[in-house]
Amino acid sequence: MTLKVKYFGLIAELTACEEESIEISATSIAELIQFLSEKYPSLKSKDFQIAQNREIASIETTLTGEEIALLPPFSGG
Amino acid sequence: MTLKVKYFGLIAELTACEEESIEISATSIAELIQFLSEKYPSLKSKDFQIAQNREIASIETTLTGEEIALLPPFSGG
Amino acid sequence: MNEKKIKNVFKEGAISSEFIGQAIAKHQSKTTIGAHNIFLGQVRTDEINGKKVSAIMYTAYEDMANEKFHDIREATFKKFNLTCMHIYHSLGQVNTGEICLFVFVSSPHRKEVFEALEYVVEEIKSKAPVFGKEFFEDDTHQWKVNQ
Amino acid sequence: MNEKKIKNVFKEGAISSEFIGQAIAKHQSKTTIGAHNIFLGQVRTDEINGKKVSAIMYTAYEDMANEKFHDIREATFKKFNLTCMHIYHSLGQVNTGEICLFVFVSSPHRKEVFEALEYVVEEIKSKAPVFGKEFFEDDTHQWKVNQ
Question: Pairing relation of β-strands A67-71 and A49-52?
Fold first, then answer.
């Protein structure tokens, strides 16, 4: 499966990238995070949420979507 | 005692007067209201508070001040 | 009564949107502020017994009202951590759609402004001797009573 | 997701006091309104480890944020009797003293606007994927976290 993965804020700073395509055989968000943590080891110590197709998703969620985002704590307003 | 009595809003409409001097021997606000209700009979059916020297005063309050006001329900804002 | 100078909160006629914009602009040099909360009272076209309100004519026991506004201000500064507070109320005629009350509170943090603003507005409604005469389109009137 | 058109709440740079004044003016033709409540978020000169914040640079997951703002708007209209609601959030650089968030709710009655405004602001803070990078006077930075 090919995923579009977006990074924001502090996370985009760590990955030095705002968006990339990832080809992966993972089926859950947990597996995707595992994969990304290997690619970007500094992710491990960071606090973030995952959105799949623009909705916050828990770690057990099955990967279905084309758009994944790694979101650090929100600080709007 | 000479009192300056002020009327506001609906009450000023009833008394057809915004301010008058009243010479009175009354010692409490209750007695003053009694006096004013005789002078302006339509006052009896109306809802109002009394302020003495710009502070809301209960009916038992002793008349001390030079400035009395009859205040209908507030409708600011 | 407090010894601080008592301000006059009353303005003749409606409070303009430009005045409100300028009041906001003046606070941009106060950089300890993180949150502003503004309440605006606007004259509503109420319909009463089939007749529509076209304007409210405000009168007030001005000396007492300014003292009460002053007391409300002092009490609010004691209760809440505010950087500043401004209150303006109209006197005279305010047409429907126009603004008759402008309350503006500012604080480093948002929680304070929400609580403080509601407190101030409720205090004004219940304690300030201000009287609104509602005019209908046919030139009859009635005296407004706050809910 | 709702079928109504999703608005873009983001504005490039600070929100000006003139813009806010004009937004207020536009509501003076809506004469069923009796109460407006406005929240403004202003960038504060926070001092962190002896260094002062000079500006915040906002970025957002714009598509998701606009969907969330839309959902917040819909939920708020369901919960409260509002006549209208407007939300604007800055993107890009906002200097200290400038305004980065403008939330504006209007209703026939005041009780509704107080509750609705606080609800909307808290929802925005917790649900909108917006990220603030705080710049210090020495050009270093840190990522802001909402309290």
Answer: antiparallel
> Which amino acid belongs to residue C112?
E
Q: Is residue D17 part of a domain?
A: yes
Residue of A51, A72, A77 lying closest to D143 (CB–CB): A72
Residue D44 belongs to some domain of the structure: yes
Q: What's the number of CA atoms in the CB half-sphere (13 Å) around residue A66?
A: 0
CATH number for the domain spanning C44: value is 3.90.1170.40
The model's pTM is 0.95
The Cα C61–Cα D107 span in angstroms is 29
Is D15 within the bounds of a domain? yes
* Domain total of chain D: 1
Q: Report the distance separating Cα A19 and Cα A70, nearest Å.
A: 10
Of A9, A74, A77, the CB nearest to D41: A77
pLDDT in tens, D65-122: 999 999 999 999 999 999 999 999 999 999 999 999 999 999 999 999 999 999 999 9
Please tell me whether residue C65 adopts helix, strand or coil conformation.
helix
Q: Is residue C94 part of a domain?
A: yes
The alpha-carbon radius of gyration of chain B (Å, integer) is: 12
Long-range contacts of D134-140 (CB under 8 A, 24+ apart): D134/D46, D134/D48, D134/D53, D134/D55, D134/D56, D135/D53, D135/D54, D135/D55, D135/D56, D135/D57, D136/D48, D136/D51, D136/D52, D136/D53, D136/D54, D137/D51, D137/D52, D137/D54, D138/D51, D140/D51
Q: What is the ipTM of this complex?
A: 0.94
**D with A: 3 or more CB pairs under 8 Å?**
yes
Residue C41 structural domain: 10-142
Q: Does CATH number 1.20.140.10 belong to domain B2-63?
A: no
Residue of D nearest to A5 (CA): D61
Q: How far is D42 from chain A (nearest CA, A)?
A: 8
Q: Where along chain A do its domains lie?
A: 2-63
The encoded tokens of residue C118 equal 């509601």
Residue D130: which of A13, A51, A76 has the nearest Cβ?
Answer: A76
